[in-house]
Amino acid sequence: MESELTFILNDQVVHTKTNPATVLLDYIRKNKRLTGTKEVCKEGDCGACAVLLGTKVNDKIIYKTINSCLFPIQKVNSKHVVTIEGLNKEELNLLQYSFVEEGASQCGFCTPGFLISLTGYLLNTTKFDENEAINAIAGNICRCTGYHSILRSLKNINSSFNAISTEILINNKVIPEYFKEIPNLLDKIPIEKTQSNFENTDQFVSGGTDLFVQQPENLLTKKISLIEQIVEPQIKVIDNNLIISGSTTIEELEFYITENKINVKLGKLFKLFASSPIRNSATLAGNIINASPIADFTITLLALNAKIIFSNAYTVEREIYLNQLYKDDFVIPEGTLYASVFTSSIAHGKIVSLDISGARNTQGVIKVLIASDIPGINQVGGIIQDESLLAEKEVHFIGEPIALVIAETEEIAKLACKKITVEFSPLKVITEPREAYKMDSLIMPPKIFESGDISGAWEHCNTIVEGVVESGGQEHLYLETQGAVALPKEAGEIKIISSTQSPTAVQKVTSKVLNLPMNKIEVDVLRLGGAFGGKEDQATHWAVFAAFGAYYCKKPVKLVLSRHDDLYMTGKRHPYSSDFKIGLD
């Protein structure tokens, strides 16, 4: 199921035929190799995937910031898409230079999204307001800087303008010259007519901000129709009632209410919903129809005693340039295969049976690997050698890898994983350290460090304080998820591109698992999109998986975890429960 689309991507007119449910982010990165737009959460929460979408309204182009990770490519037809590469054609622009001057970029993974959001704000205002600029980047997350340097860069930008217009932005090199030609180029692209025939439609899509989080793979196999092709966004007042079409976005509604001073408090409330990129896509109909208990709009509409009318559809500098790449930006060779991991759904149990035939028989699957296929030692533990690469007889945590699927595409690999079946015999689960201590079920024997006569020292203490300290576990939440690319070379050698803080660990463990000499394992680290300790030993597994696949298939293999899988499968900073006793003489 493919649709023909024509749109402008930065300064180039693009004609393409692609699955209409493909999200714009995947097309930008995989088809066009514009890797400045980053994939992090794929849920519209972080802003790293932000792009600008320009729509011609009368004789003017209106630009909005959107999350490309949730935006079906069908919606960009006859429009202008701007990525971070489209903002910088020759040199650092004003925004980029301000980020460099204030050190507002560290790992750099979030920087393109911030710059896109700020550019979107400048294209929609006539006077710089620092608070409004902060609101514009409210949907962008940075895990490194603490935001202070970013806020300082905003002050520098503020001092650069007395007034703002598209012409002023071009003259100040905030946006390139080609923006002047976009209206004429869009005039030559026919606007898609309103759709009237919905036969065989499997799924209607409105904003897609929830659908493309919950079931992105399923949508790729369905024929979708856009609500905006059925009814145009429309807001009007009839008999003192506000009539809003279902395809109206939250941002359009907020703007109408504020501009017409219908309900100032309601307008302010809408600004609190999600972030600007989400509000630019999320629609009234979509927010209602998914029936989510946490939907922003539903409770507001209930409070306003609203009615729903249903219709029948059939009637820093180097970081700013991004010339250096992260592991998922690496230009992979043609014929590269993709890996996905099948994992345990229980916390502890014996593996009674494992059936991988469904995955093996899936068209496009090249290989399904299990523990018995490992040529070396099935062990990837870091400090303690207690973690198998692939579980063989017993699983010890939810998300523990059991099988590795290698396929022609990432989508096929993930689909095949769903066809693997496993039967468990559950065992006792211990999740509290004090319970484990009582049951003598510790991961490792206690280590005791002492100096002098500890027991005798208490007699000389005037004050003794005792207690318990508890600290919760933590997710490192680096923006760039775990992953690696492995490329087989001559004489049985393997090169691994890994997002790791410990390349030597990757080399050693891969050598051990594949039973290869270390000098046949080459590990290259490009740049990390954040790590914070979460890519020390935890990055090793995914590099070994990619190498494991390349070893068997004799082709490059790429494995990059989705945000969900990263949270689900990787280790964290552990929670601690500590007893203390302090004596003072």
TrEMBL record:
Record's protein name: Uncharacterized protein
Keywords: 2Fe-2S, Iron, Iron-sulfur, Metal-binding, Oxidoreductase, Peroxisome
GO terms for cellular component: peroxisome
PANTHER family named in the record: XANTHINE DEHYDROGENASE (PTHR45444:SF3)
Family: Belongs to the xanthine dehydrogenase family.
Cofactor section: [2Fe-2S] cluster; Mo-molybdopterin
One Pfam family, short name: MoCoBD_1
CDD domains per record: fer2 (cd00207)
Listed SMART domains: Ald_Xan_dh_C
Localization terms from the record: Peroxisome
A Gene Ontology molecular function term of the record: 2 iron, 2 sulfur cluster binding
